[in-house]
Design brief:
Chain A contains 30 helices and eleven strands. Chain A is mainly alpha-helical. Chain A folds into three domains: about 1-115, no CATH class; about 135-280, no CATH class; about 355-585, no CATH class. In chain A, the strands form five sheets. A three-stranded antiparallel sheet of chain A has the order 3-4-11, with no helix packed on it. Chain A has a two-stranded antiparallel ribbon with strand order 1-2. Chain A has a two-stranded antiparallel ribbon with strand order 5-6. In chain B, strands 2-3-10-4-9-8-1-7-6 form a nine-stranded mixed sheet, with helices on both faces. Chain B is built from 15 helices and eleven strands. The longest helix of chain B has 25 residues, at about 260-285. Chain B has three domains: about 5-230 and about 285-295 and about 335-495, Alkaline Phosphatase, subunit A; about 230-285; about 300-330. Classes of the chains: A mainly alpha, B alpha/beta. Chains A and B meet through helix 8, helix 9, helix 12, helix 13 and helix 24 of A and helix 5, helix 6, helix 7, helix 8 and helix 10 of B.
Chain lengths: ~650, ~525
């Protein structure tokens, strides 16, 4: 029977898309394997059943009964599910087999035994979602050009201006921002840059020497000079040795252009538009089933761009040349070495990730009237808050080698202005040594960075805050509300402004159409009601006019029950405020899994695929439980997936 | 057939020519170009985040149609009659928001009572998609139809034109204040996320209807649509070398183990090499269409090397000059960016390089404010907050009006560039009705502007509402899109993704609309009264 159920499960997952709707967690999970077939182990089989049931529940049940983690049908039996389908009018259209009902029942049963969210289903599928061709981001192209051209040329105003004009396409707050479809403007821009570099070498002998070698300033330019340039420059731009065929092709360009300087310039022009300047290309080595094993050079490139968005350094290229990158131990050594170097590019990339993780690449200026009322200038405060978040994240990651719990709970802070010092309740600003100062106990961890809490609105918004935590920190899929329902409800209620946020939102969202999602959103938002629009602690919700004069105030009740942070939560949980929430998140499993997921997706610039990425994600999720954030980043790169891509 | 841009251009000469100087250049046109006096009807679309209240936008015409003293004209299959009034009969500003159009009342038409018919996944992105496609962003209601600017561009531009030059899709990025209090700065919005600020859809990604190839940076626009100004002898044979670049991609494409998806990615990118070839061909011709002189934005200073100056000294000096320029530019307002982009579009039109442009305007005020301001009944004098929001809306109108002024300054064989252009301004959502600022799909705030070559009635307020009160309903916005496309010869054969379906979606309000509006004849019908 179990085998049959497992077979059904695989049939299901191979014919169904991952379902993200109706406020479901959206994860398809299965059995753990860690490199071995998982199907023989009974606990894994239960995991697979639970995975099937989770997906089925999200598709068939969640719209009426709420997300699985807060389902009104928790612990339902097979019999009760079957009876409901036969008796409840709205359920009669459901067509579920006995095995599918069994799976749903397993998913609805207590989940305390489930430790991890991600599951390794089939180790032989690792890396299968990695394509052979992946477009570079504008930052990667920029860093590559800097490496290829050298700083003198790269920083020339007429060239850097063109490089700044590259189409912007970074991953900032959403992975969907990075379209896999290449932009035509990128090729146009590269052609313009190549043309400009060529023209510089025409007029500037020192630039000519720097790019082509001193021999380019001799007359005549020898064939040997060209051969040396082709070997070095083409290799540098491709981050690997050029093949004989490629070298011959470039030599042909040199010859057909009439040799000499013009020949060198022609080779340069073509090389600066090579596919490797705008794409990660992994043609790979041996084919093993549906996968292709990467060469050491390709792995070197993966490592380097994943860590810093830049080409491999000399040591990494040497390791590739000696084919020393085909073991996980070697990969780990290189990854750790690169991280230990704390290069500017690596720090920039980690900083970008932390903003992506928090979903706070930029914020709006906090409400000026609240600033006036509290004697705090809000001009530039948005930028100061973003910087403080960056400083905090960098410190925890690089200086403290902190773990997830420290990220979520540390009271270190980085006020660099009087306003930020006041807001954070710190006794001093950051000094010349750049070391942190202690914030007041009201500011523990990442979720209490002022950048997270501030708001430009007349009133704080528990809904926006709750949605943000759900989406960014817990990786829950929260759909947009139906517009007609929202419009109708607003019109029906009329003016409800003269009430507390909590009272207003309760009325707005208590209908059956809304509460399925808002039962998850609102409690998390209420917990943060103890912070005003400037991120200052408060005990009263206050409304000010534009001049900062108090108009109304109400006392705040931030306590909630049953916030449903983890699927294993029993429903008896009570939290007093966001600090309690932070502590729960810091120790809970869901947010850690989410951190692993976001690190995985950021590093690869794509959504994860539970079929093929589950093994790596599970390893990362385990690491978030026990290791530092740095360890998680290392594991996101130094894992078995790095050797593979799809052959399809 | 390969796209040949040279046969379609009016050529201007001399670096630094301003748009105001362009009339003098008519005599420089090739004889063939001068003989071609009939200019195409250009199309420009403005869309922006947010939406106004009815009162703020329609001002003097706020209220029920019956109370406005409107004239009545015969309708068509969509509605029995249409209410309207000539704007010239109105004294002063039509409304606070539309005040920038007061001096050009005869060149704008304000339309009321056009609703989105699409079912949405949620209310937030409704207008972005609906404003130019009529479909919702929910994949279940995705019609697969291209946005009207794309369809019109496909009709106007020759076959084979590179996708990157089919139309100008611009998204000026705002970083500075637009004269509002600090909170209400336009956002530094991105355009590629799920909630993109442009409704343009060019078919590049069906999973995200709002995906566009839009440009923010002036340098990028110049590189794509204009010559770099280097008509002198080529240092190298760039055009010939592009064959080698193409061969390089071909080599990768033919590599072992490259799958079908990867080949598609490569193919998409390889197609862009034709764009580069076009650019080289254009530049190498010596027949240049120069960009206009731009304000303090471009180009950066180029420092001439002094005699006997060492390389390091030169680099230091030129870098310092560049950094100084860059620092000065950092303080520029978004209005400057707008002016420059407007000039670039006008120049591209005048040069016959482009015929269609889309401006995606940034967010007006803060998103949260939209919900909390009680906008439905607010006026500019209600509060400082309300004034800031209304001012932000008016600044959008100012930009459209300023763009009209630029077009008006450029004479063509028949009238001005403005006379030969249709401008369509629509917004993110329909008008705000609820006190909470809820997003609405009812009553999109539409302004048409320009001469439209006399094909549309300009200078009118037109009211298509047929049901009043809380449940105000009007005609489908889809019919306006169909009407505008018809002016360019875009027919159901071009826009009906599946046969006999009309344009846009009808699965939202359409379900409760009369059958004469939602049957095939109704879906294909032009809006009554509007067409001249």
């Amino acid at each position: 029977m179990k085998a049959l159920q497992v077979a059904i499960f695989f049939a299901f997952v191979t014919t169904s898309a991952v379902i993200y709707q109706n406020c479901s967690p959206g994860f398809v999970v299965g059995g753990e394997s860690f490199g071995e077939s998982s199907l023989a182990e009974s606990s894994d089989t239960e995991e697979l059943l639970r995975a099937q049931g989770t997906s089925l529940y999200a598709a068939k049940c969640a719209s009426c009964h709420g997300e699985l983690s807060i389902s009104s049908k928790a612990n339902a039996s097979v019999r009760s599910i079957r009876e409901a389908i036969g008796q409840v009018a709205a359920m009669k259209a459901l067509t579920l087999t006995d095995d599918e009902i069994n799976a749903i029942q397993v998913a609805l049963s207590p989940t305390a035994s489930r430790d991890l969210r991600f599951v390794c289903r089939d180790a032989n599928k690792r890396g299968l979602s990695n394509p052979a061709i992946r477009r570079m981001s504008a930052l990667e192209v920029t860093n590559t050009l800097r490496s290829v051209l050298g700083p003198a040329l790269f920083n020339r105003p007429e060239i850097s201006e063109l490089i700044e004009g590259l189409p912007a396409d970074q991953v900032t707050t959403s992975i969907d921002e990075f379209s896999p479809i290449p932009q035509a403007a990128m090729q146009l821009a590269l052609a313009g840059i190549a043309n400009k570099v060529v023209s510089v070498t025409e007029s500037d002998s020192s630039a000519r020497g720097a790019l082509f070698g001193a021999c380019a300033n001799a007359n005549p330019v020898t064939d040997a000079c060209a051969s040396a340039f082709i070997a070095s420059f083409a290799s540098r731009s491709r981050r690997r040795p050029v093949s004989q065929e490629e070298a011959a092709s470039l030599t042909k360009i040199f010859v057909e252009a009439g040799k000499g300087l013009k020949g060198l310039q022609s080779v340069l022009y073509v090389s600066l538009q090579a596919p490797e300047l705008v794409m990660h290309i992994e043609t790979g080595g041996a084919v093993e089933g549906a996968r292709v094993r990467l060469t050491s050079y390709e792995i070197a490139n993966r490592i380097s761009y994943m860590i810093s968005g830049s080409p491999p350094d000399a040591e990494l290229l040497l390791a590739a040349e000696q084919d020393r990158l085909q073991t996980l131990a070697a990969i780990r050594t290189q990854v750790e070495r690169l991280l230990n170097s704390s290069s500017t590019d690596a720090k920039t990339r980690v900083a970008s990730f932390m903003k992506f993780y928090g979903g706070v690449a930029s914020i709006e200026q906090p409400r000026p009237s609240v600033g006036i009322a509290n004697g705090i200038s809000t001009v530039g405060l948005d930028d100061q808050m973003i910087r403080e978040l960056g400083d905090y994240s960098n410190y925890i990651f690089w200086q403290k080698s902190g773990n997830f719990e420290l990220l979520m709970t540390s009271r270190d802070s980085f006020p660099r202005s009087d306003a930020m010092m006041t807001i954070l309740g710190a006794s001093a600003k950051v000094g010349a040594n750049g070391l942190p100062v202690q914030a007041s106990p009201a500011y523990p961890g990442f979720l209490h960075r002022p950048a997270f809490l501030a708001s430009p609105s007349e009133r704080t918004s528990p809904i926006l805050r709750g949605v943000h935590i759900r989406r960014e920190i817990l990786c829950n899929e929260i759909p947009l509300p139906p517009s007609e329902d929202v419009d109708d409800k607003i019109e029906e209620l009329g003016d409800i402004e003269n009430q507390t946020n909590r009272a207003r939102i309760t009325q707005l969202t208590e209908s059956t159409q809304c509460i399925g999602c808002h039962a998850q959103i609102n409690p998390l938002g209420y917990l943060f009601e103890r912070y005003d629009q400037l991120a200052r602690p408060r005990t009263e919700e206050k409304i000010y006019d534009d001049k900062g004069v108090l108009q109304k105030s109400w006392s705040i009740n931030s306590a909630v029950t049953n916030p449903k942070l983890d699927p294993s939560e029993t429903g008896a949980t009570s939290l007093e405020d966001s600090i309690a929430l932070t502590n729960a998140i810091a120790k809970g499993k869901t947010a850690r899994a989410c951190f692993a997921q976001k690190a995985f997706e950021f590093v690869r610039a794509r959504r994860f695929d539970p079929e093929t990425d589950g093994c790596a994600l599970r390893e990362m999720e385990k690491k978030v439980q026990t290791g530092s954030l740095r360890d998680v980043l290392i594991d996101s790169i130094a894992n078995e997936d790095i050797f593979w891509r799809s052959s399809q | 057939m390969k796209y040949n841009p040279l046969s379609r251009r009016m050529f201007l000469t001399g670096a630094g020519q301003t748009l105001l100087a362009m009339p003098l250049l008519t005599s420089l046109l090739p004889r063939e170009a001068r003989a071609a006096s009939k200019r195409p009807l250009r199309f420009v679309m403005f869309t922006n985040h947010g939406s106004p209240s009815e009162k703020g936008f329609f001002g003097q015409y706020y209220g029920s149609a019956a109370s406005l003293g409107l004239a009545t004209a015969a309708g068509n299959v969509l509605t029995d009659s249409v209410s309207y009034r000539a704007l010239s009969q109105m004294s002063g500003d039509m409304s606070y928001i539309l005040a920038p159009f007061t001096a050009m009342k005869n060149q704008v038409t304000v339309i009321r009572g056009l609703d989105s018919m699409a079912l949405e996944r949620g209310p937030h992105p409704s207008g972005f998609a609906s404003a130019a496609t009529g479909f919702g962003t929910s994949r279940s209601t995705f019609s697969g139809q291209l946005s009207i600017d794309t369809l019109i561009a496909q009709r106007l531009m020759p076959k084979g034109v590179p996708a990157s030059r089919l139309k100008m899709t611009l998204h000026p990025r705002y970083t500075g204040s637009v004269g509002l209090s600090g909170v209400y700065q336009e956002q530094n919005a991105t355009i590629t996320g799920s909630y993109a600020l442009s409704p343009n859809f060019d078919g590049s990604d069906i999973t995200r209807a709002t995906m566009v190839r839009s440009m923010t940076k002036t340098a990028q626009i110049l590189a794509t649509f204009f010559s770099s100004g280097q008509s002198k002898a080529e240092v190298i044979d760039r055009r010939g070398l592009m064959n080698a670049v193409f061969a390089d991609y071909q080599r990768v494409r033919n590599s072992r183990n490259i799958g079908a998806d990867d080949r598609r990615t490569l193919d998409a990118f390889m197609a862009t090499i034709a764009d580069v070839e076009d650019g080289i061909e254009f530049e190498s011709s010596g027949l240049l269409c120069q960009p206009p002189t731009l304000e303090n934005d471009f180009p950066p200073p180029f420092t001439t090397r002094l005699p006997n100056e060492s390389n390091s000294e030169y680099v230091a000096r030129s870098t310092a000059a560049y950094l100084k320029w860059k620092a000065e530019r950092a303080g520029q307002t978004s209005d400057l960016l707008w002016r420059n982009h407007s000039k670039l579009v006008a120049a591209a039109f005048a040069c016959d390089l482009q015929k269609v442009a889309s401006f995606a305007m940034g967010q007006v005020g803060s998103h949260a404010y939209h919900h909390s301001s009680g906008l439905s009944n607010a006026t500019p004098t209600s509060s400082a907050d309300a004034k800031a929001y209304f001012d932000a809306q008016r600044s959008m109108a100012s930009r459209v009006a300023a763009f009209m002024d630029v077009l008006k300054s450029i004479p063509e064989e028949t009238g001005t560039l403005l006379d030969n252009t249709l401008i369509y301004w629509n917004q993110n959502y329909g008008c705000v009705y609820s006190s909470g600022g809820g997003h609405s799909r009812k009553n999109f705030p539409v302004v048409l502007a320009g001469g439209a070559q006399g094909k549309l009635k300009m200078g009118y307020y037109i009211d298509y509402r047929f049901q009043m009160g809380e449940s105000t309903r009007g005609l489908p916005l889809n019919n306006l899109l169909v009407t505008m496309m018809s002016l360019y010869g875009v027919t159901p054969l071009d826009y009906e993704f599946k046969s006999n379906t009309g344009y846009g979606s009808y699965d939202g309000f359409g379900q409760s609309m009369p059958s004469n509006v939602t049957d095939l004849t109704g879906k294909r019908a032009l809006l009554p009264f509007l067409v001249a």
